[in-house]
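Tutorial, part two.
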Amino acid sequence: MDIYASDDEKGEAIKNWWRENGRSVVTGVVLGGAIIFGGRYWINFQQAKTEQAAAMYQQVQMNISNADLTAAEDLTQELMQTHSATPYAAFASLELAAEQVRNDQTVAALEYLQWTVDQAKLNAQKDLARLRMARVLVDQAEYAKALELTQQTVSEGFVSLFAELKGDIYLAQENKTEAYEAYVESISSMDADDPRKTLLEMKRDDVAVINES
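Running the prediction step on this input gives:
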């Protein structure tokens, strides 16, 4: 089972946001550094580093697409060591971890996801890593650890996803009342046109029936 199916779109949304806003964010950071350190050299140097990181990330994606996880991991490690100040290191770490899970390399995947939680520059990247870590832990029946991760979200856009996962965890633990409340929270936190709404309403109603029986 692809445990990332329900949050792949969230990951794509983060990347799309960065494509649309990344240049202005980088420009602001670079100009701030120029004020501190002075000179056009600083601006050109930082922009060149960002472009290099972007190119390396694209190569990681290509390696993953070609099923060359060894090359993808080597390049991701280089990104993490030399370009951790850019979001591209976290993007690479997230995508490598996803592919490792699909190849049953969950120990390595959890390490990359934890690095993303600790080092990512965008809160949305941190939350996506937490969500994916929690899903891996649920798959391993590590419910207490997974539940702890669901309570650490900081991005508004992830509240519904974490609440749904919390409901799934409670249901797996046969805590049906808590599961129902978590599903209600998830539904109330999502957009009206969220495609997950119908499925979540079914989950909520199924738990309600169980509670009544």
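Confidence is low (pLDDT under 50) at residues 1-5, 23-38. In part three we will examine how such features are distributed along the chain.
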